Amino acid sequence: MCDKFPNNMTIEAVFDKYCDTVYRLAFARTKNRFDAEDVLQTVFMKLLKTEKVFSEEEHLKAWLLKVTVNSSKNLLTSAWMRLTEGMKDDITAEIPEYTEVYPAVAALPSKYRTVIHLYYYEGYSVNEIAGILDVKEATVKTRLARAREKLKVKLEGVELDV
Questions:
Q1: Least confident of 90-94, 131-135, 137-141
Q2: In 3D, which of 3, 119, 146, 2 has the Cα closest to residue 65?
Q3: Residues in contact with 161: Cβ distance below 8 Å, sequence separation at least 6, in sequence order
């Protein structure tokens, strides 16, 4: 057992519970399973090394998501990424539980894709997203509105199975 995780969870239990959440967010940001796997490893290595004590599971999950956002941002802006051209994965094949709308979400710029993912797929409130991304609530609301508008334009005339 470990005193730094809530309810005396082990690192294995934390990984089992939040691995998919971290991976999905990393994949939504990087659009590449290999980069998402790298981000996933980075996030959990940082968790192992942190001295932070998490009193509640929500605090732990928010910390994991914030580190995921920051780690994927660091990866995407690294010199390596600027000098190479990555292979893009088909997000619908990688994450089958997503609807037909998700390919349109995946085509959005990262700042819009991230807020849409956190709001609709992870169920976070605007306030919580603002905390995770270190931006103002108004910024999150603006990004959500712009993302919805872009999605509306992309999806007009597209028949979706409901």
A1: 90-94
A2: 119
A3: 100
Q: What is the pLDDT of residues 71-83, one digit of tens each?
A: 999 988 877 665 6
Give CA separation, 161 vs 7, 32, 99, 158, in Å. Answer: 41, 26, 9, 10
How far apart are the C-alpha atoms of 24 and 36, rounded to whole Å?
Answer: 8
pLDDT at 105 over 50: yes
Q: How many CB atoms lie within 10 A of CB 112?
A: 21
Counting every residue, how long is the chain? Answer: 162
Measured between alpha carbons, how far is 86 from 68 in angstroms, rounded to an integer?
19
Angstrom distance (rounded) from CA 146 to CA 153: 11
**Helix intervals (H) in 31-158:** 33-49, 57-76, 79-83, 91-94, 102-106, 110-116, 126-133, 137-155
Structure tokens at 96: 């089958």
pTM: 0.72
* Predicted local confidence at residue 87, as pLDDT: 53
